[in-house]
Every structure is written in C-alpha cells, then in structure tokens.
Design brief:
The protein is 48% helix and 10% strand. The protein has a three-stranded antiparallel beta sheet with strand order 2-1-3, sandwiched between helices. Helix 5 packs across helix 6. It binds manganese (II) ion.
C-alpha cells in the first residue's frame, strides 16, 4: 500500500469493468483515474514544502492534524481524506461477491441488525441521509456495528471507531449510470461489497 509522501495512485485490485452491470466501467475509470488522482496530486503538492509531515503515513496525517501547519491544515485534511476514503471505497468492492454466510463479521451483523434485510434497510437509510456530498460508513464501536455518515472528505478516523465499509455518495460515484437515483446505486453497491475485506478490517482492526 502506497501510504507515504509522495503518494501514487495504486491500481484498482480488479479491472475497471469488473463490477458491471452494477457499477459501470466509465464511472470506475473517471472515479479512480481522475477524481482520486486529483486528490493525490493536490495532497502531494500541498505537502511538498511541509517537511514535518512528509514522513507520516496517511493515517498519521489524518489522526494527528495538529502536526499539519495551521494555514494548510484544512486543505491537507480534505485531500488526505479524499485519498483515504476513496482507497477504502475501491478496496471495499469486488466482482467476486461471495456474500456473508459465516465468520465473526456475520455474527456481529446478526447481533447488531438481526437480519441481512435489516442491515440493508439501515445501510440504505444512512446512505440516503447524507445531504449533498459525503459517505456512509459501517463502523465497529468495540461492541456493535453501526452506521455513521461523514460530509465531503471527512473521515471517521478520529472518532474512535473501526471502519468496516464505506459508500461514496458524491454524485460522481453514480451519476453516469444511475443519474440522480442514489437509491438504485446503493442497491447495486450492496451487490458488489467485498465481504472478505470487510471481515479482515474487523478482525485485524486495520483500516485497509
Ligand atoms: Mn468519489
């Protein structure tokens, strides 16, 4: 994982068209190669004269914002968040959707939401509730799984949760295929969730 300055855009772990027909190839190309690339380029540019944060990992930058020079703090956080959130999102999808039938995440899901139908309904409600641009997240608080939302490119890293899954609900994530129909995009996203990665995030308590 390319996790330090200067950041580069790591390739997707699957072909751009691999999530068809749920997430279309053109959206994936633009989203990964242009939107994410723009956050990486801007972050590198902002950090080019900030020696004090160049040796920090992406996580450390996001969790230790006091170390970022104040005049650049908001811009650095926006762009570092853009990199973190997008990588998390792309790695959280997969064409090999095996579902979730057993294991610790399955158990936690049952405890927290009773049924997969309830999970889907609550996930959809959380993602629909984001006003404007942002993300909905499935997070683990140490006892239960629950949903939170973040605005723009904010991350949940300073809130003490372990992030398990996120869905990007900026319009650029779905507008070409789903137009303004966020609900149908959410339905399609759920069909390509990489549950194996979600489970690893829960078990390893790591964010990638
Ligand atoms: Mn995006």
């Amino acid at each position: 994982m390319d996790n330090r300055y200067p950041f580069t855009n790591t390739p997707l772990r699957y072909p751009y068209n691999a999530l068809e027909p749920y997430i279309d190839e053109k959206t994936m190309i633009l989203h990964h190669d242009r939107h994410l690339q723009a956050y990486i380029d801007k972050l590198n540019s902002l950090m080019s004269d900030c020696k004090q944060i160049q040796r920090l990992s992406l996580h450390e930058i996001l969790k230790n914002s006091c170390r970022i020079p104040e005049e650049k703090r908001r811009d650095v956080l926006n762009n570092a968040g853009g990199v973190y959130n997008h990588r998390f999102y792309f790695n959280g999808m997969s064409p090999d959707c095996r579902g979730l039938e057993r294991g610790i995440l399955h158990r936690k899901m049952s405890e927290s939401f009773t049924s997969f139908e309830n999970f889907k309904n609550e996930f959809t409600a959380a993602a629909m509730s984001v006003f404007g641009s942002g993300y909905a997240w499935l997070v683990y608080d140490g006892k239960k799984l629950k949903f939170i939302t973040t605005k723009n490119q904010d991350t949940p890293l300073c809130r003490g949760f372990i992030p398990i899954l996120n869905i990007d609900v900026w319009e650029h994530a779905y507008y070409l295929k789903h137009y303004n129909d966020r609900k149908s995009y959410i339905d399609d996203f759920i069909k390509v969730v990489n549950w194996a990665t979600a489970e690893k995030r829960l078990c390893n308590q790591k964010s990638f």
